[in-house]
Amino acid sequence: MIYQGNSLSASLLDDGIAEVVFDAAGSVNKFDQQTVSELNELCAALESNAGIKGAVVRSNKGAFIVGADITEFNGLFALPEQEILSWVAKTSQVFDRFEDLPFPTIAAVNGFALGGGCEMTLACDFRVADNTARIGLPEVKLGLMPGFGGTVRLPRIIGADNALEWMTSGRDKKPEQALADGAIDAVVGADKLRDAAMSMLKQAIEGRLDWQTRRQQKKSPLSLNANESMMSFATAKAMVTAVAGRHYPAPHMVVDTLAKAAGMDREGALKLENEGFVALAKTDAATAQIGIFMADQLVKSKGKKQAKSASKDIKQAAVLGAGIMGGGIAYQSAVKGTPTVMKDIRQDALQLGLNEAAKILGKGMERGKVDGKTMAATLNNIVPSLEYSAIKDADIVIEAVVENPKVKAAVLKETEQAVSADAIICSNTSTISINSLAASLDKPERFCGMHFFNPVHKMPLVEIIRGEKTSDETIAAVVAFSLKMGKTPIVVNDCPGFLVNRVLFPYFAGFSQLLLDGADFVAVDKVMEKIFGWPMGPAYLLDVVGMDTADHAAGVMAEGIPERMQRIGNDPIQSLYQAGRLGQKNGKGFYDFAVDKRGKPSKTAAEEAYKLINIEHREFDAEEVMARLMIPMANEAVRCLEEGIVASAAEADMALLYGLGFPPFRGGIFRYMESMGLANFVALADKYAALGPIYQITDGLREMAASGKSYFA
């Protein structure tokens, strides 16, 4: 044994090859500070052993190395900039040290080689991957850039253009694409990976593969002339600006760093990379995006734990109500392999549901993401029916009929009579109390809410609503089924609007009051989209939701939480609804919707909407617009946490991210408050407190701010 650490080891084989094996104590290999330290010690051991002719690096896990240990980042990034710079510089120098070993090296890549794992492969002279490999530098998704030499080595291996695409998109690559780009040298079956790596390494040792020239290329300036350099980086800057916009500094920093480092050797280029990494580590965007990653891991871990405790396996599903939503749910269940009955009382509705599934599949085929076999299997998994008898064998039934409590209660009661005694019954209601619906059932313990978001196939979230009498077994089974459907389940307790809609409607109320105070809805949308970062401003979102749906939900919220959510007099949303301006569904809302000459959807501000609101316009600065919409949302989210509707700030953040499209660079509603500083948020809310109860903060939040506490402690 040449070296033995906790996470990696090296042994000398008979033919002078050192076999370096990553095998951490946990489920995956990652570059925490301990592993980096061990890699440095390993390099010293390899350098001092004169019998080594070459080294192969592989993993004993199902994945090569998944990246850096992100759990260490919050502590590291709270340090002064100079200390972060010292850490990242020392770490990247360890990778340099491995690259400079006096013999050829090769990485045998299986599974994920991401971030620091990919950078480990780049420090080797050769790379061979099996067909399970996924290779990439996804740091921009955390608001960062590669920090262990990735911006230096990758462009010198695969060219600047390819490297810019890899790093600014953050997408990992399948082995075939990585091979085509030149990031790896061969792809083999998993059972041949080690032998293939050994064979290639022996060729290098024997001089049949020129490893010295390869290594020197990684240490030298990029081979670009002035025109090539200008074209590459100017094009990349334009693409990053178009795709990432101004809210995500990381991809911009990648382009700028590569452009400045193009004419430098490894030492100079690495210095620029280290400095760029540190600058990004101190941004709010990195804090937010790392926070999202950690929250996502928490939600997924919690979901998997709950699913493991499920005693009921969902083999057959049923959906009641075959409209756009019902069709979307049936599709999502069927495409993931669960046979699903789609039941309705009208044949034309069943056809609509089937058409919805076929439309989603058709678009997938156009983009090359769905093949004919998948399309046929999915449609065969959906069985349309007009009869309750068709659902008798269902393990789970998801009711998705019209959002009317009396209709839903009647359908649920009929359903209970048609299914087996242990079948789970769910309601896809968006606002109606689960406890009130449960009153119509003889066995409320097997009932819960299962709130999907439209369009079902695109929105990751499923809100699972626990009623007072819902059993733990029911929740566990529904969580497991949600995961099987490819969704992210978040369990919340029952209340009007549950979590997502409960925090959304104060936001809409703030918008309505802002319009009545003279704001132009187009200007508000522009601020909330371009500056705050929402995918849609409130007027556009209301048009997409539908004014009828919004008006109905506002009524439910007003009845359920009258102390804060009473209807506003002359509410513009209600005025548009009563005038028959329903939004996208009938082509007229705040905006008029049409199709342009090229067949693309278009929207223009509707003069009729301005007339219905009938308020003289005045200018509001962007900060006031954002404050007046976001304070009510944040306050209601705090109340949901304090009341136990949602278990943690992290889960609330992920629910809004996955259910509403909350801007990722802001990290979620709680992360948004914390990035501002809770004391600053309290001061801002107090400034607008006279506008009404939705602007008034809780005593709990005031105490948190005064004592310097965090929702993520």
UniProtKB/TrEMBL annotation:
Keywords associated with the record: Fatty acid metabolism, Isomerase, Lipid degradation, Lipid metabolism, Lyase, Multifunctional enzyme, NAD, Oxidoreductase
Pathway this chain belongs to: Lipid metabolism; fatty acid beta-oxidation
Catalytic activity, EC: 4.2.1.17
Location of the 3-hydroxyacyl-CoA dehydrogenase C-terminal domain: 497-592, 625-691
Catalytic activity, reaction form: a (3S)-3-hydroxyacyl-CoA + NAD(+) = a 3-oxoacyl-CoA + NADH + H(+)
NCBIfam families: FadB, PRK11730.1
Name used for this protein in its record: enoyl-CoA hydratase
Species this protein is from: Bowmanella pacifica
Taxonomic classification: Bacteria, Pseudomonadati, Pseudomonadota, Gammaproteobacteria, Alteromonadales
